[in-house]
## 1
Amino acid sequence: MTSLQVLICTTLERLPNVRGVLLPPMEGVSYVVSCQGVDEALASPFAREDVELITMKGYGLCRNRNAALRHSKADFLLIADDDERLCPETLKGIPDDFAAHPECDLLQYRTEGTPKAYPPVYVSSVELAMRRRVAEQVRFDERFGAGSPELACGEEEVFLHEARAKGFRLGYVPKTVCRLLDEGSRTRFLEEPKWQRSKGAVVCLCRGRAYAYLKCLREALGWAVREKVNPLPLLRNMLWGIRYVKR
């Protein structure tokens, strides 16, 4: 019986990359591969009983993650992407880690290939494992994340905020669960208006509108002092994010 499912999100163009994520068959572990950008029926390229391929039309990372959550069946779930390599020992031990932390509904692990210190302030999706009951009650906000029209990031923060609001608890396990092949964008905050909008939107949803206005003002002024940039475009975009999620 499968006790752990790895939920891998990918696109049609990157579907071949998933082969590098899959580990050799392991008792109690299976995979759900959710592939976005598929307009026609697609046969699974994975000739394995422990790998299920599901597809969706259109794009949006959070839409893709939610599709994988809806199709999951195991007691424990781990979020993954197509640009990582899983650590087999940590993967096998996830059910035992939850048994050792019965008070926790979600566990955060470490990733190799990122410059951040642990435990970090911000949690990446691929560091998260959860119990089945979390997946049944919490979804990623599809207004956020890669592929969304206006808000490029912040989906993990909103997801965890909603989980905590439902009474779920997050714990930290100092084990490396995966190695990232692509470190990704460290910060494009000053260059990307969608990142700036996301900042205002996330703070507003997690801390309230009044706090968000003050936080965004301080954020814009802070960047102006540190980087000698005009704070007005930053502030304007962050305020836009507040209005976007509250309209």
## 2
Amino acid sequence: MGEAEISPLVKILSDAIVSRVNRDFKQFNLTMQQMKILFFLIEREEAVVTQKEIQGYMKLTHTTVISILKAMEAKGFVKTGVLPEDKRVKTVCLTGPDEGIVKVLFRKKREIEDCLLRGFTQEERQNLEYYLEKMYQNIIEV
């Protein structure tokens, strides 16, 4: 396999992951992007999370994050607001999703991850993570 074949494989894998996630989370009315934001918020449930932090985590534009958050707010997953001390800072918080749903979401996320890495040793998993991060850093430097 030559170097030129890597980027199409990455794209094919990415599309397959998005398709699988969207299919598996459809019953919750969540897209992959919405799910990633939801997990980000769940992991920081006690903290005040800003829209800018979500932008940084998701590596998306301001406009795209606003669009995703509006859809999530309309579905009742999040609530947006502003910091009382600085009205320019937009905040995002969970609306208090049912604990049972959160457990199912995390279980499904784990199932997808396990499916992706089936047959990999722990060392191979660590190497893969390292290589993917290195590829990402390479591409953003250009």
## 3
Amino acid sequence: METMIPVQTPKKKLKKRKNKKKPETKTRPKSKKQPLYRVILWNDDDHTFEYVILMMCQIFKYDFKKGMEIALRVHQNGKAEVAVVPLEIAELRRDQIRTFGPDSLVEDCYSSMYATIEAAE
């Protein structure tokens, strides 16, 4: 019969941790929401419903139904809110409306429609 000799395993020395601070997680400051502005389209007698619908579809990517709703509101109320967006986009959309060009269906039409922006508050 064999005799078993007990074998000691070397003990690992545990290093004491120095007071290490947990890594700080960087938090992003909460970004403030940008103020919103309304893009207002104004009615005139120089542009057709078709022109307004086409313009709404091309500039704002609205579908025909939404374009028609806006054309009706402009016609009935003298103006219509066409979008509520941050200032930079509102200025761009207003300028796109103002430079869309004359209505080719109206013989005496020489300019684009008029649009403004106002704070949505």
